[in-house]
Amino acid sequence: MSILSSTQGTPERVWSLVSLVAANDGRIDRSEAASWLNPSFTENNHLVDDKESFAQVQGAATALGALTLVNKALELNPECDTSNYFSFSDWSHRRLRSLDSDQKDAVILEAYAWVLARCQQEGDASWFRVMSASETADAINEALPDGSDDDGDRRMNTSKLSSWRRWLVFLGLMEELPLSGSSRFHLSATKRITREIASGDLPRDVEMTAEDFLSRIRNSGPYLDGGKMFHESARNNHITPDDRRLSPVFSSALRDLHDAGVIELKILGDRQSYHSLTGDIAHRVGAFHAVTVRGSAK
After folding, report:
1. For residues 190 and 173, what is the distance between their CA atoms, to the nearest angstrom?
2. Which parts of the chain have pLDDT scores under 70?
3. Are residues 163 and 4 in contact, defined by beta-carbon separation less than 8 angstroms?
């Protein structure tokens, strides 16, 4: 079972299961875990025991690699960080970005890489907001490398699209706004990049070239402009990336971090080494040649 095919295995429910196993010294009988997460109840004099829902949560947790099923017991991956919800999110992100393209759950970040590549090509992200769920699922499925999910279905469909969006929110790569319809899902990498900077080893209060800074960010987010996943997706979909012009999603994240004082985008004179930003033309930063990560970001 893959993560996206486990549609009831939401990140929140997976975290609940992983936390439960961690609280029991890293091992718990599967049936006991099921009774904790999905206790049976009586309704209209009938016993209701939702086994399928728990099976999907377990399926997502084991597909992610956080848990394994050993002799009817769930065991915690000793490398899984269960300190708190955000630590688990960061661990999950590291896990997913390390997957090879032929691994079924690589689709989560590969799909995101394609969206950013197309955003760079289009010069904005409005196309993503206005597409219906079926149109978005079809477009992503067409953009992904050939193959099917372990359920024999397409790698992306409308059910998996909903699951994909939930996991992107969990990973800090999308925001869910208080709106109706698909427009409530807003592409944003601000939270993820903020957390990568906070936990990384970028030098503080030292001016770095734009290329050095971007290279380090791409290492932690290979789906971002210029990253390995980004280039692979662009190549597979006949998109010619512009290494000097950042996508609206990446540009917005850098502007957010600049405005928040996490980083300072340096602007000085007319330089050939500028990297241009797209999107918010009213923002005073339209290009930069160097970056300083502020000490308070750590």
Report:
1. 7
2. 39-50, 180-183, 269-273, 296-298
3. yes
Would you state the structure tokens that stand for residue 177, as one six-digit string?
Answer: 């706004």
- Sheet containing strand 73-76, edge to edge, reads 27-29, 73-76, 67-70
The DSSP secondary structure of the chain, one letter per residue, reads --TTT-TT--HHHHHHHHHHHHHTTTEEEHHHHHHHHS--EEETTEEE--HHHHHHHHHHHHHHTSEEEETTEEEE-TT---SSHHHHHHHHHHHHHT--TTSGGGHHHHHHHHHHHHHHHHTSSHHHHHS-HHHHHHHHHHHSPS-B-TTSSBSS-HHHHHHHHHHHHHHTSEEE-S-SSGGGEEE--HHHHHHHHHHS-PPBS-EEEHHHHHHHHHHH-TTSTTSHHHHHHHHHTT----TTB--HHHHHHHHHHHHTTSEEEE--SS-TT-EE--S-TTSS-SEESEEEE-GGG-
Instruction: Tell me if the pTM is above 0.85.
Output: yes
Instruction: Point out which residues pair with 182 in neighbouring strands.
Output: none
Token pair, residue 222, equals 């290979």
Which pLDDT score, from 0 to 100, does residue 52 have? 78
Predicted confidence at residue 255, as pLDDT, reads: 96
Q: Is 184 in contact with 177 (CB distance < 8 Å)?
A: yes
Burial 261-282 (b: 16+ CB within 10 A, else e): ebbbbbeeeeeeebbebbbeee
